[in-house]
Specification:
single chain; alpha+beta; two-stranded parallel ribbon; two-stranded antiparallel ribbon; 3 helices; 6 strands; globular
């Protein structure tokens, strides 16, 4: 890794460690949003993400594609010119169907069980990757 990437990684890791509980609460709340498709209902999650972006001073707009199905587009300016970074993700999940989900005995989608893995804790929820 070159020096700039190493510095960015170290800075990011430090910020994640400093704000760990806040980021976990963001993720728990996001996982709790029901975005099952069909019918699709990403608006609830898009609006939640937009709130978080606004809290951090990041401009954003909702782009309604269909009723209750919006994209959230956030723009953060790092400076003039130079390279750009695009983050993209989908917000809907498929219906569980007839298959028994491995964690179906856990009542809350965003339950954070005390499961230890090699690098920390594991978050369980159908809406997470």
């Amino acid at each position: 890794m070159n020096m700039k990437i190493t510095q960015l990684y170290d800075y990011s890791k430090k910020k994640v460690e400093e704000n760990r509980e806040l980021y976990i609460s963001y993720l728990k709340n996001a996982i709790s949003c029901n975005t099952t498709n069909p019918p699709g209902n990403e608006d609830v999650l898009a609006r939640y993400i937009q709130e978080i972006l606004m809290e951090h001073g990041i401009e954003s707009v909702l782009q309604q594609v269909y009723p209750n199905r919006s994209n959230v587009i956030g723009v953060y300016t790092f400076g003039t010119g130079g390279k750009k970074l695009l983050l993209n993700a989908h917000m809907d999940v498929v219906a569980p169907g007839d298959v028994l989900w491995k964690f179906s005995d856990r009542p809350a989608l965003a339950e954070r069980p005390d499961v230890r893995v090699a690098d920390g804790e594991q978050m369980v929820g159908r809406n997470r990757a």
